[in-house]
Amino acid sequence: xxxxxxxxxxxxxxxxxxxxxxxxxxxxxxxxxxxxxxxxxxxxxxxxxxxxxxxxxxxxxxxxxxxxxxxxxxxxxxxxxxxxxxxxxxxxxxxxxxxxxxxxxxxxxxxxxxxxxxxxxxxxxxxxxxxxxxxxxxxxxxxxxxxxxxxxxxxxxxxxxxxxxxxxxxxxxxxxxxxxxxxxxxxxxxxxxxxxxxxxxxxxxxxxxxxxxxxxxxxxxxxxxxxxxxxxxxxxxxxxxxxxxxxxxxxxxxxxxxxxxxxxxxxxxxxxxxxxxxxx
Length: 280
Ligand SMILES: [Mn+2]
What we know:
The chain has 280 residues and is of the alpha/beta class. It is built from nine helices and 14 strands. The chain has a five-stranded mixed beta sheet. The relative contact order is 0.17.
């Protein structure tokens, strides 16, 4: 089964379909999708994509982690977020089965770990902590997921309403889904790094972790291919392109370089500007 990792789709169904058609032509049914999160928002087709991806997930053909835009959708659903002029997930909020979408989304994982070739790895939306081992990643993700996916929805609402300083799980949730940089004093930030060495993965890489990380959320950086790291957000919704990574699992370390296993679909058009979403 060929794993196919896909960067931030953000409602760009046409480009997603282009990559999917290529996957079907090449592998038939013998592939599995791994989505780094931010399937929805800013682009035109959030609900349609969510429907299709849910079907893939439920047939066991897709792994999907929560991104910050899925969290924004949950916050909007629970009245914790004011409408934002660039939000384009009204189609989900207005869907008659919307409560069911909320229940499904809040049970998605924050990190999915596995092995490729002989190399352990994890997939997250934005980042992992600089010092975290793979066990730490999994433990912290499970703690957040237990709260966000709790039987009692009030616990999930409480988590998204919580201050990052007051609740370590709220801080971990935000780090998993929003982190891009680390400041000198060791704090993480969702801001783009002001210097390349402030990018979260530069400091993570210096620690020599044995596991690898596949992630998204970093459109300004673009495609990131480094030993043990694959950053796949190439800003499709910002009129960039949608990237898929097809690791060669027959290699001892599919995260080594060089690596030519990338497919890209060019954005078909501009989807929004400062004024808001641009309808087709
Ligand atoms: Mn993101």
